[in-house]
Structures are given as structure tokens and as C-alpha cells.
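[job 4471] stage=fold_predict status=RUNNING
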Amino acid sequence: MKQTHLYDQHIKLGAKMAEYAGYQMPIEYRGISIEHEAVRQHAGVFDVSHMGEIRILGKDAAVFLNDVFTNDIYTMTPHQILYGMLCYPHGGVVDDLLVYQKGENDYLLVVNAANKEKDYAWLVERSTSCSVQIIDESERYDELAVQGPEAQKILEQILGFSLKQLGFYRFDEEFYQGAPILISRTGYTGEDGFEIYLGEDSCKALWKQLVEEMKVEPCGLGARDTLRFEAALPLYGHELSDSISPLEAGLGFAVKMYKDFIGRDALLEQKENGIPRKIVGIELLDRGIPRQGYRVLVEGKEIGILTTGYMVPTSKKPLGLALVKSEYAAIGQSVFIEIRGKLVPAVIRDKKFYEKKYQR
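[job 4471] inference complete, writing C-alpha cells
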């Protein structure tokens, strides 16, 4: 099993470790709720070096990416980031990812950790008729995510340059202690924050400055999941998968039907004929905690399944996201959640569990 370069630091801090995407990763340090609230109120730092980075280069790079990516590559400018999906011909999702435009026909794809080998193979298989290089650069990069309302101030003190001009979903290539880094105003928590791609030595040094000198809360994957869930951000394998389309997940903003891409015909048919299922918010009306995989029922009939659920640290409410048949997706629809054989009353609600605090 792989370890990130910060493994020894995680052990030193007493992190609870577990396997994730082939890596030993920290799940929590002082506790998920403590780490969750640190990000909401102050700042937290996550080791996300397990994520995948794939470089696309060559004269056909933009053409190739636009053919496989649901969003429109041609709307991008250098140092911009675009969110979207790779889709199968039937409309299911290979992965959701970020595309960084580093220059003309030079793109960096940041993909989900569990999917990076699959994504790389899928891209290579579809590139045979294009003049492109597809390079898996995952081993080149470590990655830290610094998230929360104090993230900018803290990083500016450490890095020694202003981040005020760095807009949402934009990135710059800078230097830290003489070594190159890439820093973007992105994140997966619903708060303002930054993701920093850097080499091993720089990663260790920056982690030490953040945690030991600036007293930034180290956060594990547990808080990362409660934060992204509370902000209603999808996670592959939960709200997206090879059997859940971007339209069912409510991500139509990142699907540009006016252009061609793999999966477009299936998604267009879905849109024209009516999207069969939808991801909705769920709130329990009685005691219990909703969890992934629990059935959603109406009058004894299964109409969907929970994709994620928690007793949310910020609101202390038992909330979930669920994939349900569209005819039952209206806000206010009464449902039951089956929890260990017991039917717990619940209601379908909006997915606005938390007001995002992005700096746009």
C-alpha cells in the first residue's frame, strides 16, 4: 500500500489512518467535528497528495480534450480552471475532474485518486488518432489543500506574496523557498481556499510551517467528506458513477450540449425524454443518521437510495443526498428511510445545506 510523503507527519500527529485509493491516508486527527469546524471558522490543511495529475500536450491537445470533456475547453484562457466530466457513450461518468490551462495546447488534468489509472488508460485509448502526449505526472506532485476564511491571510504570511488578485478557479505558478509551485483558488469544502501542487521537500516544509508555526488544524479525509457533503459537492462513487449521469447529479452547468463530446447523444436523449432520476436533499424527521446505501421508500415502494448521509457537524441535522426517481423528487415530498429494518420518516428538501463562501 502506498504512502504520501507526509505519512510520518500524520503518524507523529496521532492520525487515525486507513486505506483509501491504494494509499494509507489520515481519516482524522483530533476528531472529524473539530476539524470540520476549524475549516468553517478558521483554516485547515489537508494532505491530498493521493490525487492524480495527468498532462495533455501537443498540437491537438485542445481538440482532443474538447472531444472527451463535457465542458467547453475553447472558453478557457491561460491560468483558468474548468470543472467537468469524462463520460462513457451511454452517459455514465468515467470521472469528474478539473482542467488547468497552463498554456496553448498544454493542460493539466486533476483527477480523483481512485480513478487515476482508469482515467489515464481511458484517455490514451481515445487519443490514437490525435497528435497529443498524455503523461501521468501523479508521482511528480504532492498536494496540500488549505481551506477556510483565514486561508489567504495565513498563506500570504508564509509564501511572501499576495493572493488577493488570484480569482476563483484561477491559478498561478510561483516559487516557495526557491522551488516552483502551482497554487489555485479551488477546494472541496465550500469555503474560500487554495490547492497547492509542489514537490516532496516543499510539501514537507510547507506542512511544517502551516501546522507547527501557524497552528493550522490538520484535517483528514473524514472532515473533507463532511465538508464537501455539507456544501452539496458530488463525490465520485456516491453522487456520480458509471451508472449516474451528470444530468441526474444536477451538474448540467458543466455539460455543454452545443458541442460534441463522448456521451453527448445519450445525455441529449435523457434531457429530451426527461431525466429519469435526480440527486436530492433529504432530511430525517425523527431520530437516526442517514447513511450511504440506505433505501428511500414511498408507500412501501423503493424509489431511490442514499448516496451520502451524515449528522452534519455545523447544523447538527441528520441530512443526506439521495438518488431518487424524478417523479418523487419534488421538495416537500414525504418519504421513509430504511435504517436497520426500521422506517424513519423524512422529507425531500433542497441541497442547500450550507451557504458557500467562495471568493469570486
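[job 4471] summary: The two ends are 39 Å apart (CA to CA).
[job 4471] exit 0
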